[in-house]
Amino acid sequence: MPGVAPTLPTLLVLDTNIVIDWLVFNDEFMKPLRDAVADRRATVLTSTPATGELQRVLAYPELKLDAVRQAAVFDRYLLQTSPASLPDGFSLANLLLPPTFPRCRDPDDQHFLALAWHSRAMLASRDKAVLKLRKRAARFGVAIVDVQQLIGRLQHRE
After folding, report:
1. Is the CB of residue 41 less than 8 Å from the CB of residue 9?
2. Which of 16, 137, 146, 157 is found 20 to 30 A from 130 (Cα to Cα)?
């Protein structure tokens, strides 16, 4: 339609548990996420720390994924995500966050917060320690949502 600006995709950072629900369990509840990514209404951002964590989690015995299935899930993840543009020097050891940025009780989840902050993306998590940081992270412009809120927001963008 002339004169109407296209809607930009929602930028998302997904914690590993949500990625597992999305790509391993193929839960019907996650259909709005699958559709939003396929329709390019949502862009899932990733980073080296996020991909490394996903590879480790896919190998957990509790998931019962053989090496072929692990590789297939990981490849689908890479195909359906975009590497975030992060500042020079960004790493697990140096997340380049402001000194007063909230710290997660679980340091393994801090990189998701950093990815969301640097990318100005919404962080979706199932982790209670991350979800407890909602108000403090919002002061830095980072929206943290649980999976139900994520799905609700994506359904409203259809």
Report:
1. yes
2. 157
